[in-house]
Design a protein that fits this description.
It comes from Salinisphaera orenii MK-B5. By secondary structure, the protein is an alpha/beta fold. The protein has 10 helices and 10 strands. The protein has a 6-stranded mixed beta sheet, with helices on both faces. The protein has a 4-stranded antiparallel beta sheet with strand order 2-1-4-5, with helices on one face. The chain binds adenosine-5'-triphosphate.
């Protein structure tokens, strides 16, 4: 479904990513793990069209999307849920959710999509008229995920969905991600919470200093000595 071939990208003349090769098959849950500053967010921003690659190819369902405008990439079916959620704090939950569907035929089908999202997150449904900033961190993350789902993406990308959340809420967020994956949406997650994300994923990549240093099944990475020492503290 998605393929990055030899992608180098960064900010200005400085490459953060160097020769990144990565693929996601339809229906998979794939994760990119790595420490601070490894280039995980930059990878998602590059796929989303927010950062233009300096070199390489990004193919989504056969089409090269490298250099395409980010709104056109959303229209193709790729949505990113940003780090730290980035809701509109003064807007209601309902308005935040509606923002997720701003591209697709504006009002057409909006009501039905809102109903689908509310069915997925009943707690959010009870808070549709509340201002987003009045919600707990966990609830805000659910709204951010719901907003991403409003675009009916085929590939949903999560940037550190567990950031700043209590462990019990993190577990709920990963349950939701697994539920989304079971409905047929393909998922790509970048995380510093390596254990939890590998538990949820089919396959994973380790990104270090902007380069892919390992690629394997999630189970193999969980059992790998380097991953255990460097990321799991074992
Ligand atoms: P973190 O988990 O800390 O967000 P990350 O793996 O997601 O880490 P990136 O956010 O992709 O890493 O950052 C990789 C490198 O790119 C860092 O050295 C960072 O300072 C740099 N960088 C990120 N955003 C910008 C920007 N807008 N302009 C210049 N440099 C940037």
């Amino acid at each position: 479904m998605l393929q990055l071939n030899n992608v180098s990208a960064g900010y200005g003349a400085i490459n953060v990513l160097e020769d990144v090769d990565l693929s996601v098959e339809e229906g998979e849950v794939v994760t990119i793990v790595g420490g601070n500053g490894a280039g995980k967010t930059t990878t998602l921003r590059t796929i989303s069209g927010l950062v233009t690659p300096n070199r390489g190819e990004i193919r989504f369902e056969g089409q090269n999307i490298a250099g395409m405008a980010s709104h056109d990439i959303v229209d193709l079916g790729i949505t990113m849920i940003p780090e730290a959620r980035q809701l509109f704090p003064d807007m209601t939950v309902r308005e935040n959710l509606q923002m997720g569907a701003y591209r697709r035929g504006a009002q057409e089908g909006l009501k039905q999509r809102l109903e689908e999202v509310v069915a997925m997150f009943p707690r959010i449904g009870e808070r549709l008229d509340q201002r987003a900033e009045s919600l707990s961190g966990g609830e805000q993350q659910m709204v951010a995920i719901g907003r991403g789902m409003m675009a009916r993406p085929r590939l949903l990308m999560f940037d550190e969905p567990s950031l700043g959340l209590a462990p019990i809420i993190v577990a709920q967020v990963f349950e939701v991600i697994e539920r989304i994956a079971r409905t047929g949406t393909t998922v790509l997650i970048v995380e510093q919470n390596v254990y939890q994300t590998l538990k949820a994923a089919d396959r994973g990549y380790v990104l270090e200093n902007g380069r892919v240093t390992m690629a394997d099944t999630a189970d193999a990475l969980l059992g790998n000595d380097h991953v255990r020492r460097a990321y799991l503290g074992i």
